[in-house]
Amino acid sequence: MSADTDSAPAPRAPSLPDGPAAEPDAGPAVESARGAAGSGSAATDDTSADTGQVDTRPANARRSGTEQADPEYAEYAEYADDGYADSIRSVTGWGRTAPTTARLIRPLSYEEAAEAVVACGAQGARGGIARGLGRAYGDAAQSAGGAVIDMTGLDRIHAVDADAGVVLCDAGVSLHRLMEVLLPLGWFVPVTPGTRYVTVGGAIGADIHGKNHHGSGSFSRHVRSLELLTADGVIRTVERGTPLFDATAGGMGLTGVILTASLRLQPVETSLMLVDTERATDLDDLMARLTAGDHRYRYSVAWIDLLARGAAMGRSVLTRGDHAPLDALPRRARRRPLAFRTVRLPAPPPFVPEGLLGRTTVGLFNEVWYRKAPVARTGELQKIPAFFHPLDGVPHWNRVYGRSGFVQYQFAVGHGNEEALRDIVELISRRRCPSFLAVLKRFGEGDPGWLSFPVPGWTLALDIPARLPGLGAFLDELDGRVAEAGGRVYLAKDSRLRPELLEAMYPRLADFRALRAELDPRSVFTSDLSRRLAL
Amino acid sequence: MKDAFGTPQSLLVLGGTSEIGLATARRLITRRTRTVWLAGRPSPALETAAEGLRRIGADVRTVAFDALDPGSHEETLGKVFAEGDIDMVLLAFGVLGDQTADEAEPLAAVRVAQTNYTGAVSAGLICGTALQTQGHGSLVVLSSVAGERARRANFIYGSSKAGLDAFTQGLGDALHGTGVHVMVVRPGFVRSKMTAGREETPLATTPEAVALAIETGLRRRSETVWVPGALRLVMAGLRHVPRPLFRRLPV
Question: Are A460 and A411 in contact (CB under 8 A)?
C-alpha cells in the first residue's frame, strides 16, 4: 500500500498542535499550502488572516471525561434514545428504521480512539464503526452487537491557513462549526450537503456532494490528505491519489477511523447567496433548463413535485445561485458582510402519530410550495441556511415520520439514460408516493473514490414514509430499472438495497473488498450496512 | 441484517415442517431472505420442505431439533447461531392434540403441554439470548387465539398456548431496549393439515394470511399481531363474557 507513510507500531497522537498556543507546525499539508504564492487574494479579513492559526475549541470541560458537558452534542447527535442503561444504546440512522443495539464509545483523544479500535477487534467482539452526527439515513453508522465509535468528541480545528484557504481539523468537526469559524475569515466549506450537521469524517466516508457538484465535484476532491486509524491500531497519513485514499473516500468508514483531514476551502466575499428562482412546468422543461443553464451557476438544484400527474408530471422549482459579491449587498449589510447567524426552532415532540405525512398533506404542501414559488425571480439575496440547509432550522425533523421512520431513495443515472430517469419519475408519480422532499440535480465529473456515488448525469432523491404498504417491492422495482440503466443508489442513504445489485452498481466493489480483506482481515470495522450488503 | 422494512436476510424456523412457518419463509424469500434454517425432527417431510424453499432461490439448511428434548436445545441452536447472524427466529412448532383422547390419557395431554410450552420456553430463552448478543433480530412466536380464553372444546391445547403467550410477552419486556424485537402472533382457526377434518370456527384464516400478517408486523415492529385483525376486537369482547354464558357459546 503506497499510502502508508507511517508505520509506527503503537497508537500515538498525530503530529498536530495540541493546544491553543501551539506552534506553527500545522502538519505538512498546511505548511506547503502556505508556501503556495498567489492564492491568498481572496482572504478579506486581514486582522485574523495574518496569524494563520485559530483554535476554536469551546472552553468547556470536554477533556474531563464527562460526556454530558456539551449541550450541542445532545442536540445534534441522533440516537433512538430509549433510556436504556449506560453506554449500550439503540442506534438508528436518520431515517429511524431498523434500530440495532451497540456499545457507544465516545473517545476524547486519539489514544482513546485507538483503544476503541483495539477493543472492536478483541477476541469475541463483533467489530465496530465510527459515527459522526448520525445523518446517514440508513444503517451505515450502526453496528449491531458491536461498538459505535462516536467521533463528535474529537472536534478540534487545528489550524486555518487563511491566505491559502486550507483548514486542518479533526474528523469529528461539523460543517456547521467550520462555517462558524471560517466564514468570518472569508472562506466557505468546499461542498455542503442539505444539512450542516455532518462531520468532516462522515463527509469523506460518504464522499458527499452538494448543489455545486456539476462544477466542484464531491467532498473528497477538496481533501488534500487525511489521517486514518486502521484496524491494526496504526495511524496512517493518506495522500490523495493513493489506493487507500480512493477506498476511504466513499468507503463508508470501513477502511478505518478518519482522525483528521486537511481541506481546501472556497473563498467568499460575503455570507449571503445571490439566488435565481424559476419554475419548470414539467420534467422535460426542467431537464432542458438544467442542461442549458447549470454552467452559469455554482450551485443548482431543483425541487420536484412527484405527486403531480399527467402533463404536470415533474413540475418543479429551480433554485440556482452563487455566493454574493460584496457589491451586491445593500449598504447596511456591507458593514458585516461575513456574519453567519443561524436560527433553530423547537424540535417536534419525540412521539409523533403515524401517518401525518400522507398523500393528502404532502399533496397540499406540494401544491402550495409550487404556487408560492415565483415564475421567475433573479438576484434575490438569501442567507446560507435558507439556501443550503432549510431543514436544519428544525432539530430532529425526522421525527415527523413517526415511529416507523422513513427511507430516502437516491439514485443516479449517467448522461444518455434520461429515459430511465423519466420512467422512474413516471412510476413514482403513478404510484402516488407521498414525497415532499424530492430533489433533482445534475452531476458533473465523478471522483476516483471506489464506492463514491456521483456519476456524470442525473440524480434524484426522495423521502418516503417507511410505513407505506408495498414500498419495499416498489423500490426493488426502481432499483432494477436503475441498475439496468447502469445507474446506482447512494449507500449513505440506503437501508434496503438487494445485495445482488451492488456489484453492477459499483464496478470497483471487488477492488474495495480486496483492499479491505488485506487491510482489515478480521473485519474489525463492521457496520450493519457492511453486513447487509456484504461490503 | 434486516432492511428498513424489517424484512430479514436470514431466518430460522423452529418447527421446520409447520405450514405457517413455511408460508412465512416463502413470503420472506420473495423479498430479502436468502438464508433459511429449518429446524425439526429429521424426516422426509423436513427435507421436502427444504427442497421446496431451495427451488424458490433460498440457501436452505436443516438442523435436527426436537421440542420435547430441551436438554439438547442449547447445543443445537448454539451451532446455528455460530454459523452467522440470524435476523429472525420464527417459533412455529406446536401440536394440537386430541382433546377427547387427551382428557382420558393424561400423559398424552402432558406431551401437548411439553411440546407447546416447555419446549418453547427453552428454545425461546436460548434464541432470545443469542439475538441479544447479536444486538438485533426478531423473535416471532406463534401463539393462538385459543390461548386468550380457555374453551371447553380445546382447553389442553389452549392452556399450553396461554402459557406460551404469557411467556413471550414477558420475554419481550425483558428484551425491550436490547435491540431484539419480540412479536406474539395470535391466529384464529387456520386451515391447515393440523386442523384438517375439524369444524371451522368463525373468522378462519390461512397460513398465507398469517405469513402476510407477520411481514406487516415486522415492518411496523408490532408486539402483538392478530390474524385476522378483526379477532382483536372480537376477543376483547369475548374475554369479558361471564363464564356461565361463555360455557354455552358455540365457539
Answer: yes
Residues in A touching B221 (Cβ below 8 Å):
403-404
Residue B144's domain spans which residues?
10-246
CA distance A97 to A406: 7
Largest CA distance in chain B: 54
Determine whether the interchain pair B179/A138 forms a contact, defined as Cβ–Cβ distance below 8 Å: no
The answer to the question of residue B198 being in a domain is yes
Q: Go through B52-81 and write b for each residue having 16 or more CB atoms within 10 A of its CB, e for each that does not.
A: ebeeeebebebbebbbeebeebeebbeebb
Instruction: Tell me whether residue B4 is in a domain.
Output: no
Give how many domains chain B has, as a whole number: 1
pLDDT in tens, chain A (535 residues): 444 444 444 444 444 444 333 333 433 333 333 333 333 333 333 333 333 444 444 433 334 333 444 556 656 666 665 555 458 899 999 999 999 999 999 999 999 999 999 999 998 899 999 999 999 999 999 999 999 999 999 999 999 999 999 999 999 999 999 999 999 999 999 999 999 999 999 999 999 999 999 999 999 999 999 999 999 999 999 999 999 999 999 999 999 999 999 999 999 999 999 999 999 999 999 999 999 999 999 999 999 999 998 899 999 999 999 999 999 999 999 999 999 988 888 888 888 887 788 888 888 888 888 888 999 999 999 999 999 999 998 888 998 888 889 999 999 999 999 999 999 999 999 998 888 779 999 999 999 999 999 999 999 999 999 989 899 999 999 999 999 999 999 999 999 999 999 999 999 999 999 999 999 999 999 999 999 999 9
Q: Which residues of B touch A99 (CB under 8 A)?
A: 136, 179
CATH number for the domain that contains residue B207: 3.40.50.720
B31 to A473: CB separation less than 8 angstroms, yes or no: yes
Contact between chains at A84 and B178 (C-beta distance less than 8 A) = yes
Those residues of chain A whose CB sits closer than 8 Å to some CB in chain B are 82-84, 88, 90, 95, 97-102, 126, 138-139, 143-146, 403-405, 407, 466-467, 469, 471-473, 495-496, 498-499, 528, 531-532
- Residue B31 has, within 13 A of its CA and on its CB side, a CA count of 28
Q: How many angstroms separate the CA of residue A215 from the nearest CA in chain B?
A: 34
How far is it, in rounded angstroms, from Cα A506 to Cα A452? Answer: 9
The answer to whether the CB of A107 falls within 8 A of the CB of A155 is: no
**What does the alpha-carbon distance between residue A315 and residue A304 come to, in Å, rounded to a whole number?**
6
Residue B117 bears catalytic tag: no
Amino acid making up residue B86: I
**Residues in chain B closer than 8 A to A83 (CB atoms):** 177
CB contact under 8 A, B135 and A145: yes
**Is B1 domain-assigned?**
no
Quote the pTM value: 0.89
- Chain A CB contacts of B129 under 8 Å are none
B48 touching A (Cβ < 8 Å) = no
Contact assignment for B3 to A472 by CB distance below 8 Å: yes
A83, A101, A471: residue with CB nearest B135: A101
Q: Is residue B56 part of a domain?
A: yes
CB contact under 8 A, A101 and B4: no
Pairing of strands A266-267, A376-383: unpaired
